[in-house]
Input
Amino acid sequence: MTEAHLNHADLHHILSKMPSALRNLIKNNSLMLAGGAIRSLITRERISDWDLFGADEYTLKAVAAKVEAAYGPGSRTHKSKNAYTILAHGRTPVQLIRRWLYTSPEQLWQDFDFTVARAVIWYDTGKGWCSATDPNYYADLASRRLRYCAPERQEDAGGSMMRVMKFVSKGYIIAPEDLAMVMSRITRRIRWEHELVRKDDGARIMAGLLREVDPLTIIDGVEMEEETPATISEEALRGIPGEDVDWSASTKEVTL
Output
């Protein structure tokens, strides 16, 4: 799949806002930064956490210990099936993702479910700081559009739907076709195992049903009664090691 890149100004802005200790950990441990922090810094929103990815859990666990030590007294590490999360009062949480391991930036960004999440930053010893994004990253981010990419990965069936709810609450929009693909991912876990309906067929059927909902017939979230029963359209059925412990935002010039 073709990839694009963060523009120079955005990459520099993100690195300059990143704590220098975090930059050192990424450089010295072959880690990658991805997730909401990149998007939030570009859109000038508050960062909820720093998500770091790597190739093996041993390194991630060792880095988690370094972060906890750097955060000082009162910090703690929470281990879940997904990540090591380091928490401390007054500090932005750092998450080292352990459920999904990646050996390359391309493998990482292509595993995210929405184009507006498909961005990654890493350090290359020969090239310096590098980035990669989905080709539609900037266009969809500017229009606050959720474009679903249907990655094949191990996750809870409802994970993407929960992220849709989060994004929509922040003002993003999603087309019926993309929402239908997210919904069909859930039903696949129930029905596809029994081969009752194919993946693409289910998404088309759901898209047709969603398009039949006329927003003008809904008042305050309550659908009005129709005089004639709703039917499924023929179209819908046809498809059946860093040592720096400065964790404040960096004010030093960053060399890309």
